[in-house]
Every structure is written in C-alpha cells, then in structure tokens.
Design a protein that fits this description.
The structure is a single chain. A hairpin with a 2-residue loop joins β1 and β2. The chain is built from two helices and four strands. A two-stranded antiparallel ribbon has the order 1-2. A two-stranded antiparallel sheet has the order 3-4. It is α+β, with helices and mostly antiparallel strands and 155 residues long.
C-alpha cells in the first residue's frame, strides 16, 4: 500500500503594517526580558559558586575560629565559628534546615544545575526570538520599500 503524503498547506496571513510593528516590538521586549533573566540567573549562579567556595573553606577550619561575616554592601562583622561541621540552609519560605556542609554543598550544586538548565532554555528561547525579529525586520523593510515605491509611482 502506498503511503499517503501529507502536504503542508501554507496559509497566508495578512497583517497591517501597524500589526507587524506591534509584533516586532513585542518580540524586542521579549528579547530584552530574556536578556535580563539571563543576567539575573548568572548573578545567582555566581553567588552560589561563591557560597560553595566559602563552605569549602569553612570545612577546613576547626571549632572556635574567628571569621569575617558579610553583612552586605561591603560591610563585615567579626564572628566566632563555634561549629564548622554544619550550617543552616534556607529551604524555602524563610524556613531553614541545619545540615552538614557536604549536604549543603550538594544542595547548592543542585540549585546551580537547575539554574544552568533554565539559563540554557532561556538562551534557546532568546535565539528563536532573535531569528523571528530578523524575519520581521525583513518584512518591515520590504513593506516600507513597497510603500515608498507606491508613493513614488503616484507622484
């Protein structure tokens, strides 16, 4: 039995120039939003890496070690680390769980892996949006060229 071939029917969609511009502007806004998301996720990943490095250093020190604790905005306080074997990790909703440093490092690595996966997905979406914007720019340029020709033909 012969296979039936499915023919894709191309549908023609007519848009006004204003609609085309609106779609273009939406896609540009999407690209800007995705770029901002990428930036935020990269910052969080860098913070996670910094935290992992700090935990690895804490693991090496003994009890009752003096450390500097960042309070944010370049402000630090001296503190004494009474127990270098466990830390408290936020697990969500301002709820903390005390856990061994090794487990905390694993948790941070999971978070980082999830963020890197999201970053990859955002990159793919951004790539698609950029390709679509390029197509839209071609259509807009062509529409502008035709409009100019039409006006010149009338004059």
């Amino acid at each position: 039995m012969a296979k039936k071939e499915k023919k894709e029917k191309r549908r023609e969609i007519k848009l006004t120039f204003e609609q085309l511009l609106a779609i273009y502007q939406q896609q540009r806004a999407l690209i800007d939003s995705l770029t901002n998301q990428e930036s935020m996720i990269r910052s969080i990943i860098a913070e996670l890496q910094s935290t992992q490095n700090a935990l690895s250093e804490i693991k090496k020190v003994g009890k009752d070690t003096n450390i500097l604790v960042s309070l944010g905005s370049g402000v630090f306080a001296s503190a004494r680390l009474s127990d270098a074997s466990e830390v408290k990790v936020e697990i969500g909703g301002n709820v903390f769980e005390q856990m061994p440093i090794a487990k905390a490092l694993n948790k941070l690595e999971e978070r980082k892996a999830n963020l890197e996966k999201r970053l990859k997905n955002i990159g793919e979406r951004k790539k698609q949006a950029i390709a679509f914007v390029i197509q839209l720019e071609r259509l807009i340029n062509e529409a502008q060229r035709k409009a100019r020709e039409k006006v010149q033909g009338v004059a």
